[in-house]
Design brief:
The complex is a heterodimer.
Chain A (H helix, E strand, L loop, with lengths): L15 H8 L4 H28 L3 H4 L2 H6 L7 H22 L1 H19 L9 H23 L4 H19 L19 H28 L3 H15 L3 H15 L8 H27 L2 H9 L4 H31 L11 H11 L1 H4 L2 H30 L5
Helix pairs in contact in A: 5-6, 5-7, 5-8, 6-7, 6-17, 9-10, 9-12, 9-14, 9-15, 10-12, 11-12, 12-14, 13-14, 14-17, 15-17
Chain B lengths: L2 H5 L1 E12 L2 E12 L3 E5 L6 H8 L7 E6 L2 E2 L4 H10 E4 L11 H11 L5 H14 L15 H13 L5 E5 L7 H16 L3 E5 L3 H7 L2 E6 L2 E6 L1 H6 L4 H11 L2
Parallel strand pairs in B: 3-8, 3-9, 6-7, 7-8
Antiparallel strand pairs in B: 1-2, 1-4, 4-5, 9-10
Helix pairs in contact in B: 4-5, 4-6, 5-6, 6-7
């Protein structure tokens, strides 16, 4: 960039004083408001900071941070979690390099979180030296992946396949292990917990419910009465019922209907419940988007001889999804937060783990506010990363907008 | 092209009827269009001319009569319908470009997905067509970044990329600002002169006079009168034709 060639510059931004006079003190009542606000902010910041660093007792958090992250997952099997992290870090780094902006907020969030964990400046019992090392290694790995994704040309399709394979390995091999295996003994999902379970439910629910929701949305527009009827019945009955009810249904009724002895994994049950719940909402959002695509688009596709499937895949769906990204991401964020409800199935996801920790120690009952604040912070970080990504996605897809 | 092929009828319509509920939009249209012929269809709004041209590629379903395109009879067989649509390009009044795809992607989508041509081949054809319609420099822009006239020319390139045997034009200049009509008509004239078989619904009488082989005047779902441009303009037989021509030629 050569700045020197610019002959006429836009007017220089006003100095701080001018800006303040124009925006904060332009008349007496705005000045009053500004002063009151500043006083309020200062007091509030003081109170919050004082609480965080002086008053709050973070023992329930610091004593066993791993409980929040992975629940009761056997501590001698931690290397498996580490391997999961390594896989994800590397892939997210590469994705950041290949897909750019969209993944960046997730990659940066993840890297920052791990760096914070690795570099916490005081002694935390469970945060061993090697664990900190692994975290730091992951941060480096994200960056290396990013460089690799930038330098080497990797097609988006191959990357997606890599993600798919990695998820399969993580969910079906690394985390559960094998019964009878020496190196990787079975870890039943009842021992999984904390953020690990929250993320499995949220990410799994989002990834599985999305294609189902899209299929339901198309089904609802179908000209075949049976398909249409089924989709309407499914969508409306799921949407008419609270998630808690569906979870209860899955925990109790499924047992009644399934042949005795076949115990359906609890976590899987929760995942199915969350998925169908989210699918029904996704379907309605997508349907709104489908309805917004003008009929001329379909006609243009027909006129060049495309099949209905091709028209929907290449012409209608991309435009429909673009229109409903904010709604869908909003729904995914609420799905992420709704995973806390699986508590009622006895699954200790992040919030459940927090409650378990509070109840485990009489002293901690007094400190539940700290625990909940910590958990709220974790939820906020992930939700914010999602909504930030959604905004970036909208901008990126806004190219050529009418 | 040898003379024998030129005489082949490529579009044959016999007694085509179409109802919307109780309203009969087409009351028995018969028309034969031979290869390389340019046919202009005109008439007052609501006369069924757009409906008729849209029955030829099954954007509208006819309920009675036969439509045969390139030897294939339009029935309910989806594969037949898709085969006919591959051979008939259509240009719409509202362009109907795909707003989420670039100009190039708009053009190569069907050649790649329907004709199964390679990306390289499709892009090569697309580039040639964009040059033919005069906007090769817009290839990587999005439809919303183009003027109406440019969009309609992209729409023509998109239809031509499938290398159809017949081109259908449904009021291609009606949604355009006056200063852009000419750039679209120029391309259509060039296309007609190159030997493309065309069915054009339009009120552009200059275009009809210049390149049409035959003209059909539609009113109330029927062909009221047909003939060469000379016959229609100089010696119309029906009162309704005379009245309509006097109304649109006044200006």
């Amino acid at each position: 960039m050569s700045v020197s060639k610019i002959t006429s510059r836009p007017p220089a931004p006003p100095g701080l004083r001018t800006w303040m006079r124009e925006n904060l003190f332009n008349n007496w009542y705005n000045s009053l408001l500004t002063i009151i606000s500043i006083i309020f902010i200062v007091i509030l910041t003081g109170v919050v900071l004082r609480w965080i660093f002086v008053d709050a007792d973070w023992r329930p958090v610091i004593q066993s941070p791993l409980l929040y992250l992975i629940g009761q997952y056997p501590r001698d099997m931690l290397w498996r979690i580490g391997l999961v992290l390594v896989l994800i870090s590397f892939l997210i780094g590469v994705s950041w390099g290949v897909w750019g902006g969209l993944i960046s907020s997730f990659a940066i969030t993840m890297g920052t979180l791990m760096a914070v964990f690795a570099l916490i400046p005081f002694q935390v019992a469970e945060l061993t030296f090697s664990l900190r090392g692994v975290m730091l290694f992951n941060v480096v790995l994200i960056y290396l992946g990013f460089i690799l994704g930038r330098k080497v040309s990797i097609s988006g399709r191959n990357l997606a396949i890599a993600w798919f394979l990695a998820s399969v390995i993580i969910i079906f091999v690394l985390l559960p292990g094998f019964a009878g295996s020496e190196i990787m003994p079975k870890v039943p999902s009842t021992l999984w917990g904390g953020l690990l379970v929250t993320l499995i439910l949220a990410v799994g629910g989002i990834l599985l419910s999305f294609p189902i929701g899209v299929a339901l949305a198309f089904g609802r527009r179908s000209s075949l009465p049976v398909v249409k009827g089924f989709c309407i019945a499914f969508i409306e009955s799921i949407r008419g019922v609270p998630l808690v009810t569906i979870l209860f249904m899955f925990s109790l009724i499924l047992q009644v209907f399934l042949p005795t002895g076949s115990r359906f994994d609890r976590l899987l049950r929760a995942l199915v419940a969350v998925t169908i719940f989210s699918a029904a909402y996704t379907a309605e959002n997508v349907r709104g988007g489908l309805a917004a695509v003008p009929p001329g688009q379909t006609e243009a596709g027909k006129a060049v001889g495309m099949s209905s499937l091709q028209i929907n895949m290449f012409i209608v769906l991309p435009q429909a999804l673009k229109a409903v990204i904010p709604a869908i991401v909003g729904q995914f964020i609420s799905l992420f937060k709704d995973t806390t409800l699986v508590i009622i199935l006895g699954i200790n996801e992040l919030l459940g783990m927090g409650r378990a920790i509070i109840n485990s120690n009489a002293e901690f009952v007094q400190l539940q506010f700290e625990v909940y604040m910590f958990i709220a912070l974790i939820f906020w970080i992930f939700s914010y990363a999602m909504s930030h990504t959604s905004r970036q996605l909208e901008t990126a897809l806004g190219v050529g907008e009418r | 092209m040898d003379d024998q092929r030129e005489l082949q009828p490529i579009v044959v319509c016999r007694d085509v009827h179409k109802w919307y509920g109780n309203f009969e939009a087409l009351k028995g249209i018969s028309m034969e269009v031979k290869l390389t012929e340019v046919v202009v269809i005109f008439g007052p709004s609501g006369s069924g001319k757009s409906t008729f041209i849209r029955t030829i590629n099954r954007l509208e379903e006819h309920q009675q009569g036969d439509i045969i395109v390139d030897g294939i009879e339009l029935g309910h067989d989806v594969r037949d319908i898709e085969k006919i649509r591959m051979e008939t390009g259509m240009v719409f009044q509202q362009f109907n470009l795909f707003p989420h795809l670039s100009v190039m992607q708009n053009i190569i989508l069907a050649p790649m997905r329907v004709r199964k041509w390679s990306k390289d081949k499709s892009e090569e054809i697309a580039m040639q067509l964009l040059e033919r319609v005069g906007i090769p420099e817009q290839a990587y822009k999005y439809p919303a970044q183009l003027s109406g006239g440019q969009q309609q020319r992209v729409a023509m390139a998109r239809a031509l990329a499938m290398q159809p045997k017949v081109m259908l034009f449904d009021e291609p200049t009606s949604a355009l600002d006056p200063e852009m009509i000419k750039e679209v008509l120029d391309v259509m004239v060039e296309l007609a002169e190159s030997g493309m078989t065309m069915l054009v619904v339009t009120h552009e009488m200059g275009f009809a006079r210049g390149v049409a082989d035959r003209m059909f005047f539609f009113d109330e779902g029927l062909i009221v009168e047909s003939g060469t441009p000379k016959q229609i303009f100089n010696d119309p037989q029906e009162d309704r034709t005379k009245l309509f021509l006097s109304q649109i030629l006044q200006h």
